[in-house]
Write a structure and sequence with these properties.
365 residues; Rossmann fold; Dehydroquinate synthase-like, alpha domain; 2 domains; six-stranded parallel beta sheet; 8 strands
């Protein structure tokens, strides 16, 4: 079927919800040989011991050398270490960087790829699948939505650029939500992850590719963040707030899986690449001004009150003060030519954005 209706929506990821990681592992019944990709912190918190204890028939391999903003060399080292090994599935447990790494590794294993750069540059040419492989993603933050998107981000620190794969074959088999896993997320990571998800929701709203369904996902995400994000930040042990934020992140992830991101993310990539600004902060510090542009062009939008409440919340976080700890305004101005990534910038629907107010977005003067 070749349906081309622009309002079509497809997301094949099976969504599953569990009260504990033990329950999730038992439910998946990881028979055979599995590759588990996670963060070093997950190993420290006993993930390896738990999987080996609960899934007695499994003989998993663990890879935990995943850093924030994973580089092409790091993923290449992982893929090379898998040479000659056969797996029945891949499990990713972690934040967006871990989940992106797991998706790329899974694709390499399924298509017999050993050169990650070749995969990134020629993914559309893949044709022969060499192995069927399940991919299960378990997010431990409420932010990236990577568990339900068909893209992965890899960074090239030598050429100072972001490399992305956008392909439906990156979709995971299943996403498992275990809210208790987010309780150990520290304040700053909770904040930046939440900002990333808020940015996803807003970026889907002012997006040329938006549909009625992606709008519903985005608006519900913003409503939940508006209600529960302050509680999560005030009390990191608030289990209800953490659970709600995972749902909000899921909704915004579903939204961008249909629309892709837009101008805020286009701005963020060079800032992160050149100055190490955490992604969630880099793609959100200018959101209040972008909200104003959207409202000015859509004065009769029935959701203006919600947008203004989100704007007030973002302003209360003093994000421009936070980003000044990483990068100066002058340094950001120097990166202006790199901030209009055509794959993202062209998705932005607000016609009033021009070179003058684009500069003002960055410097806020």
């Amino acid at each position: 079927m070749k349906g081309k209706n622009r309002n079509a929506f497809q997301n094949p990821v099976r969504l599953m919800f569990f009260s504990s990681l033990t329950e999730a592992i038992k439910d998946f019944d990881l028979n055979g040989r599995w590759l588990v990709i996670c963060s070093p912190g997950a190993i420290d918190r006993g993930l390896k011991n738990l999987i080996e204890e609960v899934s007695l028939t499994s003989n998993p391999d663990f890879f935990s050398e995943v850093s924030p903003n994973p580089t092409i060399d790091q993923i290449q080292n992982l893929v090379e270490s898998l040479s000659g090994k056969s797996y029945d599935g891949v499990v990713g447990v972690g934040g967006g960087s871990v989940l992106d790494t797991a998706k790329v590794a899974s694709m390499c294993l399924r298509y017999g790829m050993t050169d990650v750069r070749a995969l990134l540059e020629n993914v559309s040419n893949l044709s022969i699948k060499t192995k069927e492989l399940e991919t299960i993603l378990i997010p431990t933050t409420a932010g990236s939505g990577a568990e339900v998107t068909p893209f992965s981000t890899v960074w090239d620190p030598i050429e100072k650029r972001k490399l992305s794969i956008d392909d439906s074959r990156l979709y995971a088999s299943a996403a498992a939500y275990v809210p208790e896993l987010t309780l150990s997320t520290p304040y700053e990571q909770t904040l930046f992850s939440g900002l990333d998800a808020i940015s996803h929701a807003l970026e889907s709203i002012w997006n040329k590719n938006r549909t009625a369904l992606t709008m519903e996902f985005s608006l519900r995400s913003l409503e939940i963040f508006n209600e529960f994000m302050p509680f999560a930040l005030a009390d990191l042990s608030n289990a209800k707030a953490r659970e709600k934020l995972q749902i909000a992140s899921l909704f915004s992830g579903l939204a961008i899986s249909g629309t892709r991101t837009a101008v805020a993310h286009s701005i963020s990539y060079p800032i992160t690449m050149h100055h190490g600004v955490p992604h969630g902060l880099a793609c959100s510090f200018m959101l209040p001004e972008l909200i104003d542009l959207y409202i000015a062009e859509n004065p009769k939008d029935e959701n203006i009150q919600l947008f203004n409440e989100i704007k007030d919340f973002l302003l209360s976080l003093r994000l421009r003060d936070l980003i000044s700890n990483y990068v100066t305004k002058n340094d950001m101005v120097k990166l202006l030519p790199n901030m209009k990534d055509p794959k993202r910038y062209r998705n932005y629907s607000i016609e009033s954005l021009n070179d003058v107010n684009f500069l003002q977005l960055i410097v806020n003067e």
